[in-house]
Amino acid sequence: MPKYHNYSKALDHKIFRVISEAAEALSVDAYVIGGFVRDHILERGEPKDIDIVAIGSGIELAKKVSELLPDKPKVQVFKNFGTAMLRSEDHEIEFVGARMESYRSDSRKPIVEDGSLEDDQNRRDFTINALALKLNKDGFGDLLDPFNGYDDLKQRIIRTPLDPDITYSDDPLRMYRAIRFASQLNFMIEAESLKAIKRNKDRIKIISKERILDELNKILLSDKPSKGLALLFKTGLLKKILPELTALQGIDEKDGQKHKDNFWHTLEVVDNISENTNDLWLRWAALLHDIGKAPTKKFHKKIGWTFHGHEFVGAKMVFKLFKRLRLPLNDKMKFVQKMVLLSSRPIAIVDDNVTDSAVRRLVFDAGDHIEDLMILCEADITTKNPKRFKKYHSNFKKVREKIEEVEERDHIRNFQPPVSGEEIMTTFGIKPSREVGIIKDAIKEAILEGEIPNQYEPARDYMLKKGKDLGLKVPQE
Fold first, then answer.
1. Is 299 exposed, middle or buried (0-12, 13-18, 19+ CB in 10 A)?
2. CA gap 178, 124 in Å, rounded
3. Which DSSP letter does residue 371 get?
4. CA-to-CA distance for 423 and 384, rounded, in angstroms?
5. Model confidence over 375-396: pLDDT tens digits?
6. Beta partners for 6?
7. Where is the HD domain (predicted)?
8. Phi, psi of 103 (to 5 degrees)
9. What are residue 96's DSSP bridge partners?
């Protein structure tokens, strides 16, 4: 295929004709560049974000485009960056003047000067993102590909346009972007580029945690996150951001007894769960579900390797990790904590002799997230033994059936006590006190243990009995 193939069909949307008309009116050359071109060639659907480069003022081009559009969309101007943005229908279009960049060693923010299209393509992170389609009438749709990015797309290769050491040192975020694209697109990072990432990994200290987190989340949301996570590990970048996770890597042996490599097991779990959910926070829970195993690992001569209490320790570690990475310290964090804390509970109730009480407590503790917990636990099955794999899944099917049966009968999910604290105080003529809490907890425990059904009358009778035991004045019926 010729290097300068024409892709005018990629530009069928009317917005490109309007940009072309605006460029002609201002006598500037204009190009659509980057992700739009890449994703069209890869047939990944029509991207909603469009990047336009003008050989001249991108801001003036944006204003002219707005004038020509029927709805006259508002143009947001970012003078400090020399860019402008507008929204038209379902597209977000960013305009920038072609520029050349140079960097200082202590910052990823470039020193920017006006430049040519070639200068602008030189500053791009990867060859596959340096592809440009001409928007002017003369040559509309022509592909400008100075670094053979088209060939790299077809061969599924991530490569930098210039020396990778310079590219990654100038802007270390590009190392994460390389791995993110490899993960999202299922591409290979070119060998020299991969070596350069390893050499420049210490440069990430100049990148904000927010920017790193954005790339990490995108890796986690890819179809097979293990590809990106494994590359982060092999290049040394993962240890710098998630040492709790890399601490799981390795297999220790004592007295001929080994434990599995919990790091690579975790990556399998994340891949497994990604086949069943796009929920970012459930994927985070899968990533962190075993982080408590490194600090709790012990060897006992009689029973071998143990990780007692790793769920409790791991749940506590989640808060510190979220705080350090500037992940949200809200209900998202609490959800991940809950999933880590409960991650082994369903396994404990697969026995045919398990009591309804154990199932009720599991449903009570998991609440609305019981299904998320079951998805996590099923993803945690990574055995390669077909018989064991089938057995584990069969056991979890039984657990689901028990949960459904108990929930239908006892209505424990999102449990609300049948008797309120206000009713307890009114009944016994007492004010808010320790006794109110004792009675409420006693009713809850009685329901969970199956001593009384989750209904008002039995709960009220139990309240009266418990109040009498506490020496409270029981009203005469």
1. middle
2. 12
3. H
4. 56
5. 999 999 988 889 888 888 888 8
6. 142
7. 265-348
8. -125, 150
9. 53, 83
User: What is the third-level CATH fold of 8-155?
Assistant: Beta Polymerase; domain 2 (3.30.460)
- Give pLDDT tens digits for 173-196: 999 999 999 999 999 999 999 999
CA distance linking residue 360 with residue 406, whole number of Å: 7
Q: H or E segment at 387? A: helix 386-410
**Is 159-241 CATH 3.50.50.60?**
no
Residue ranges in 221-355 assigned as alpha helix (H)? 225-235, 237-241, 243-246, 262-274, 280-288, 293-296, 310-325, 331-342, 345-348
The ranges assigned to domains in the chain are 8-155, 159-241, 421-469
pTM score, whole prediction: 0.86
Query: Do residues 14 and 91 touch, judged by C-beta distance below 8 A?
Result: no
Helix (H) or strand (E) holding 457: helix 456-469
Q: Determine contact, residues 38/154, Cβ cutoff 8 Å.
A: no
Contact 444, 417 (CB under 8 A): yes
> Residues 248, 284, 291, CA angle at the centre, nearest 5°?
25
Q: Which amino acid is at 399?
A: V
What residue spans of 140-236 are helical by DSSP H? 149-155, 164-170, 173-185, 191-200, 209-220, 225-235
Q: How far apart are CA 373 and CA 346, in angstroms?
A: 8
